[in-house]
Amino acid sequence: MTEPSSATPRKRSRTIARMAATQALYQCEQTGANPESVIMEFIRHRHIAPTASFEDGHIPDADLNLLEEIVRNAVLKQDAIDSTLISLLPESWPMDRLDPVLRSLLRTAIGEMMAGLPAQIAINEYLDVAHGFFSGDAPKMVNGILDKFARQQGGEQSVK
Q: Which of 25, 43, 53, 117 has a CA that sits 20 to 30 A from residue 151's CA?
């Protein structure tokens, strides 16, 4: 039996942070809560013992610095992110038609890509996040939208 590489826990902690950031943005949108308050709630009340489960609403092992960075970036650049997202969606699918969690996921992903996260990493990470929240066609939609954004930016495309 081989030991997991040292990169595995870090990758997992970053993926968990991205899932939590998606939830935090969703919470801000649904409740109108201040993003800083939501970030602090996630850090104080959801980041608890590593034995706690994500399914129970906890974020054990999350990279808290990344969580804060993603949420703050998405809120700060929301107008630019939303404008970009609107341009990526089909005309027959306005942004307010998106599931609110899906909208939050796309905002965090596009925000990270705008901030310099390489397209291949962003697409892979946010497909994992999408599979954590959705079944059916939603992950395919995430892949298509992020791939389209990456191509527009001249970045790498996803591996489909």
A: 25
Q: How far is CA 155 from the centre of its chain?
A: 19
Q: Is residue 158 part of a domain?
A: no
Residue 157 in any domain: the answer is: no
Instruction: Look at residue 145 and tell me if it is in a domain.
Output: yes
Whether 119 contacts 150, CB under 8 Å: yes
**Mean pLDDT of the 100-123 span:** 97
CA–CA separation, 117 vs 157, rounded Å? Answer: 13
Residue with tokens 């990456």: 150
Residue 99, token pair as written in the block: 């599931």
The dihedral over CA atoms of 115, 113, 156, 129, expressed in degrees to the nearest 10, equals 140
Identify whether 65 is part of a domain: yes
Domain that holds residue 96: 7-152
Decide: 129 and 138 in contact? Cβ < 8 Å.
no
User: pTM for the complete prediction?
Assistant: 0.83
pLDDT digits (tens, 9 = 90+) for 18-37: 999 999 999 999 999 999 99
Say if CB 106 and CB 122 are below 8 A apart: no
| Residue 67, domain CATH | 1.10.940.10
d(CA 67, CA 27): 14
How many structural domains compose the chain?
A: 1
